[in-house]
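ok here's the first one, seq then struct tokens
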Amino acid sequence: MKRFLSKKVLIMAVLCSLTLTTVTCGYILYPECRDRHQTRGEFDVPVLVMDCLWLLVGVVPGVVALVVDFTTGCVYESGQAVKGKAGANLDLRLRGVAPAEADMEVTLRAPGGYATTLLLERFSKGEQKMGTMAVKLPAQLAPGYYDLAVSVNGVENATWPLEISE
């Protein structure tokens, strides 16, 4: 009887800790992060600390919290989302001299994986680029969260969250 009771208590404790883990992870605390699927960047320290504290309670709750936040991207800081409207222009500020011949591409990525190239610009070695470049957002964009990525010679250098409002 005692053995059965101790198993029951253990199972209840594991279920309670798993429930609490999902409530305190970044996935629940920051619902706007869910569709971003950010895979790199600076860590959001409070989320990472909370996830790691669950390792003190038990390995399973800690690992569950870390896995959920890393796979959804909620453990990464997003910075401030760029806000825009469908059909509007976004201004990119460039400065400096191109160290080598390069192709710069600005891409808009939707949460479902669909990507659209908004700008493709070629720079010659030593070309001075100062000022702003206008990037026009597609008029048919639905309100929601997107990613705006800048790649140079096919290598992604920067990504910003983009919020499209009505």
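and now the second one, same deal
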Amino acid sequence: MCYAVGIKIPKKQTIKVGQVQLNLDDLDIPVQSGFAYEGWPVIFNESDEANTPQQMLRPGLMHWELIPSWVRNEKELIESRKKYTTLNIKAENILNNKVAQGTIHTHRCLVLASHFFEWQQIEKEKYPYCISVNDKPVFYMAGVWNTWTNQNTGETKNSFGIITTEANALMSKIHNVKKRMPTILDVDAANSWVNENLNDVQILELAKYQINESKLSAYTVAKNFQQRTNPCEKVAYKIFTPQTLF
């Protein structure tokens, strides 16, 4: 799963996705919970002008929670959260997922992050980890997005969900109950995800991609990391169990 993420872009910079150069503004969000239902930076294709078919890749903030098309207003949206969450979308079911299947072929995005957090359970205790990609201050997670319309007000809102896949060897030891992780894409895969017309087989292949464990770094942090100024500060726990030996 992936319900808490962070990002740090210390200064304005230019990145390249395929042949497209994009300008990213400086940004520092040490940690954000998906359950805050706020905006998060993504890269996505959108028409450059109203009523024109040409799509342009651009960065922007988008509501984190893929809002179902059948939800008619904010009241129904709040009620729907009591039944299910669309912060994450499972890769294995993405072609048949009721929320994502209508847009996965045309509305794929890259979710930007510098790190994410996950919990390891040992007996009855849980211990949080901060996980990052080696030598990648900002990396890409696969996402799917849509444009939702509030039928009461007419307001439109772009929303997205993070795609998750089966955990790799390292993440299986950390997220050792549900054994899931976000789908983290390398540069070439990220380009394919947003810039190419993919068929069902290709979509599934990329959505289910597992980054090699050797490319990840992980360490324990404070249990109240979401309330800390530096949520990624390393905190050691005296846990003497083979489960924690990587």
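notes on #2: Residues 4-244 form a domain with the hypothetical protein yedk fold fold (CATH 3.90.1680.10). The radius of gyration is 18 Å.
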